[in-house]
Amino acid sequence: MTKNFSTKNAPAAIGPYSQAIQTGDTVYVSGQLPIDPTTGEFPSDDVKVLTQQALDNIRAILKEANMDLSNIVKTTVLLDSMSDFAAMNEVYGKNFAKPYPTRAAFEVGKLPKNAKLEIEVIAVR
């Protein structure tokens, strides 16, 4: 059995997918672009600001599932340029405590809406 989680405190899905789905004790959060849910726009061109926005969106979705960032066991970060990795990593590290979730980070050719980054997570109760 699966359960869908959705919140207006994170941007609406830009395609036919859920913000998050729970199956068993695991919640899968779809990749979050750094879109401000109140404006529908990117809040800045600064990768640090964008990283925080994407993580804030994830935090809001997890809150709907009565979870928080400490429940995250795996993250995937997609960057349009690895030259932004250090800036992303600085902000990312301030949002998590040890033991940190596992993570993969990739440079991709292009992201939806020409975003600079996207973050997806898996969280467990």
Detailed description of the structure:
Strands 1-2-3-6-4-5 form a six-stranded mixed sheet, with helices on one face. The mean pLDDT is 98. It has a single domain (2-124), classed as RutC-like (60s Ribosomal Protein L30, Chain: A, 2-Layer Sandwich), CATH 3.30.1330. Helix 1 (47-64) packs parallel to helix 2 (85-95). The chain is globular. The chain contains two helices and six strands. Helix content is 23%, strand content 30%. It has helices spanning 47-64, 85-95; strands spanning 2-5, 20-23, 26-32, 72-79, 102-107, 117-124. The protein has 125 residues and is of the alpha+beta class.
Task: Looking at this protein, list some descriptive labels.
alpha+beta, 125 residues, 6-stranded mixed β-sheet
CATH architecture name: 2-Layer Sandwich
How many helices? The count is 2
Q: What's the CATH class, please?
A: Alpha Beta
**What is the arithmetic mean of pLDDT?**
98
- At the third CATH level, what is the topology name? 60s Ribosomal Protein L30, Chain: A
- Name given to the CATH homologous superfamily: RutC-like
Order of helices and strands: EEEHEHEE
Strand order within the widest beta sheet: 1-2-3-6-4-5
The shape, in one word, is globular
Strand % is 25-35%
Provide the structure class.
Answer: alpha+beta
> How many β-strands, per DSSP?
6
Low-confidence stretches: none
Helix content range = 10-25%
